[in-house]
Design a protein that fits this description.
binds adenosine-5'-diphosphate; OB fold (Dihydrolipoamide Acetyltransferase, E2P); elongated; 369 residues; single chain; 2 domains; 6-stranded antiparallel beta sheet; Rossmann fold
């Protein structure tokens, strides 16, 4: 049985169609991240699962029960919000105890649950403090503590790390993942940050304008994006995308090294062997920065390019190049000396490149690679 099942879900805000026919199965203990640009409908979907937004059509099942008509408080879920929503005048202990007091739980039960949650979250020494006496990360932990004491099986997080500084965000990502594993719960987590999604998720749901573009593990989305939207949304620096056509030779698809190739501004670019396409079809060639190789040996078989910027990122370097009138980005180790203005050659790693139909955006490379 799935922990959360969403079937043919739709949400209309009067004439605006915010959620369009979404179906997803979330397995027990899975950590699923909903990611997409601002306004794509991630929070609306999460709030519908939580019971904070009504369903226009379709069904939401939680732990085998259809909950469309079940009030939020009876859905056996816990939600952690971006702004923590802590009570400023209550102590950490009372903030965590609040939902149990509402449910009129006995004092010993409340005490035990709050202390257990505080131990898990390393908040034991802070139980008598007020939220204003806590750091951002500690407040975030109290918000999670409130969710833990309710002993819910499904945790919902809505951009919980947006208010934290960069360093703390990285630390809290690890903490939330560890907490998820320790509690053995199912988690649905909303973020607009693809790096957060890539580092935390078992599976990612990429959303755009109310639809699901692709569902997959971080590796699947990175290695085999189903369309141009996912290809450009996932990955940083983002994938190089060059618009061209399937190359033709004497009226047939030009084949090089067993694969069709792309004609881009007179350059022949390689395709993955499983790429398909009709001669002359407008296509978009994709190569991640680590699959663009920069050479300085003057090999005429390769493509000429000029370096326009070199950025050090630590162990690697980001090299920005001008190639046939377009800007492309390569990521490479620090070893070779390179300078701005230098004329170099580039090649693309044929077994790692992507191909999309420019008109539909859909991938023309069949999986698996
Ligand atoms: P996200 O979380 O991905 O940033 P939201 O789920 O908050 O996006 O919003 C999705 C779309 O629905 C947006 O275009 C937003 O303006 C619209 N929307 C959200 N809530 C309401 C509402 N209560 N009334 C009308 N439109 C809304």
């Amino acid at each position: 049985m799935s922990a959360v099942t969403i079937r043919d879900l739709n949400k209309h805000y009067s004439s605006y169609h915010a959620i369009r026919n979404i179906s997803i199965d979330i397995e027990p203990r899975e950590f699923v991240v909903l990611v997409g640009p601002s306004g794509c409908g991630k929070s609306t979907l999460l709030r519908m699962i939580a019971g904070l937004e009504s369903v226009t059509s379709g069904d939401i099942d939680i732990l085998g029960r259809t909950v469309n008509q079940v009030p939020a408080k009876d859905r056996n879920i816990a939600m952690v919000f971006q702004n923590y929503a802590l009570y400023p005048h209550k102590t950490v202990f009372e903030n965590m105890a609040f939902s149990l007091r509402l449910k009129k739980q006995p004092r010993e039960v409340i005490d035990q649950r709050v202390r257990e949650a505080a131990a898990i979250l390393d908040l034991e020494r802070l139980l008598e403090r007020k939220p204003s006496q806590l750091s951002g990360g500690q407040r975030q932990r109290v918000a999670m503590g409130r969710a833990i004491v309710r002993d819910s099986k499904v945790f919902l997080f809505d951009e919980p790390l947006s208010n934290l500084d960069a360093k703390l965000r990285v630390q809290m990502r690890t903490e939330i993942r560890a907490l998820h594993q320790r509690l053995g719960c199912t988690t649905v987590y909303v973020t607009h940050d693809q790096i957060e999604a890539m580092t935390m998720a078992d599976r990612i749901v990429v959303m755009n304008t109310g639809v699901v573009e692709q569902v997959g593990t971080p590796e699947e989305l990175y290695d085999r994006p189903a369309n141009l939207f996912v290809a450009s949304f996932i990955g940083s620096p983002s994938m190089n995308l060059l618009e061209g056509e399937i190359a033709i030779e004497e009226g047939e698809i030009a084949i090089e090294e067993g694969a069709p190739c792309v004609d881009f501004q007179g350059h022949r670019l390689p395709c993955a062997p499983t790429a398909t396409g009709q001669p002359g079809t407008k296509v978009t060639f994709g190569a991640r920065p680590e699959h663009v190789h920069v050479h300085t040996d003057g090999d005429p078989e390769r493509h000429n390019a000029t370096i326009t910027m070199v950025e050090l990122t630590g162990p690697d370097r980001i090299v920005v190049l001008e190639f046939a009138g377009e800007t492309i980005v390569a990521e490479m180790e620090k070893r070779t000396p390179l300078s701005v203005g230098q004329r170099v050659e580039v090649s693309f790693q044929a077994d790692e490149v992507h191909l999309f139909d420019t008109a539909t955006g859909n991938s023309l490379v069949s999986a698996p690679r």
